[in-house]
Design brief:
By secondary structure, the protein is mainly α. Helices cover 75% and strands 0% of the residues.
């Protein structure tokens, strides 16, 4: 937990989205490790182990879903961008300069 606090205070990455991503993944790793700690040991009842196992699966699915949806949210506008024109027509700059001199 100390590392997470230091990370959030210092913001080590250049871009804000990377700082958020790093904080999110670190928090989820800490949560998953705590739930795995509940699974260890033989003195736990089967109900606790089943609940902890379900929590691990739910946390893992949440991490996967949030990472995929975050990537889609960031990449979709870039991939689905529509151009306002079909063709780009241009002219040669040298001939445009000559034409402008001719109009003088």
């Amino acid at each position: 937990l100390v590392w997470l606090v230091v990370q959030l205070v210092n913001l080590p990455w250049r871009f804000a989205i990377l700082n958020k991503f790093d904080a999110y993944t670190s928090t989820m790793q800490i949560l998953v490790l705590h739930v795995f700690a509940i699974l260890g040991g033989n003195s736990r009842s089967e109900d606790v182990r089943a609940t902890a196992g379900s929590a691990v699966v739910v946390l893992f699915a949440t991490v996967l879903f949030s990472l995929v949806s975050g990537c889609v949210k960031i990449m979709a506008p870039r991939l689905l961008r529509h151009k306002s024109f079909l063709f780009f027509l241009s002219h040669h700059k040298g001939s445009a300069g000559l034409f402008a001199r001719q109009l003088k």
